[in-house]
Design brief:
Blueprint (H helix, E strand, L loop, with lengths): L12 H15 L11 H8 L3 H13 L3 E4 L3 E4 L4 H20 L4 H11 L1
Antiparallel strand pairs: 1-2
Length: 116
């Protein structure tokens, strides 16, 4: 599993981890039954605090994407993959439309936050 964190992003590192695991599951890069790295191992590889990864894993657990058990680790159990694929397609179309209008990603993020 490959996760890239962007410093200075509007999203926290934990939010970036959550988003990338969800995207990986929607694209089929991460499949049901796959074990995610331990929080300690992922934190070390990303250069972040282990509690950041634990927050991300807890969010994924609450969303039904992973099962998290002491001693067993984090295992992908699903989530609503078809709905996530549809959402990703919609987001890609939104980004493309924004680009045609000359709206940069930072501006688009601000617009989206203003709506929600």
């Amino acid at each position: 599993m490959l996760i890239h964190l962007v410093e200075g992003s509007a999203a926290t590192f934990a939010e970036q981890i959550v988003a990338q695991v969800r995207i990986g599951a929607a694209r089929g890069d991460i499949v049901r039954g796959e074990r995610l790295p331990s929080a300690k191992d992922l934190a070390e590889s990303l250069g972040v605090n282990m509690h950041t990864v634990l927050r991300a894993y807890d969010s994924l657990r609450e969303a039904g994407v992973i099962d998290l058990r002491r001693g067993r680790g984090a295992v992908v159990v699903g989530g609503d993959v078809p709905a996530m694929r549809t959402l990703l397609e919609s987001v890609a179309a939104l980004v493309e439309d924004a680009g045609r209008l000359g709206i940069k990603p930072g501006e688009l993020s601000t617009l989206v936050k203003g709506i929600g």
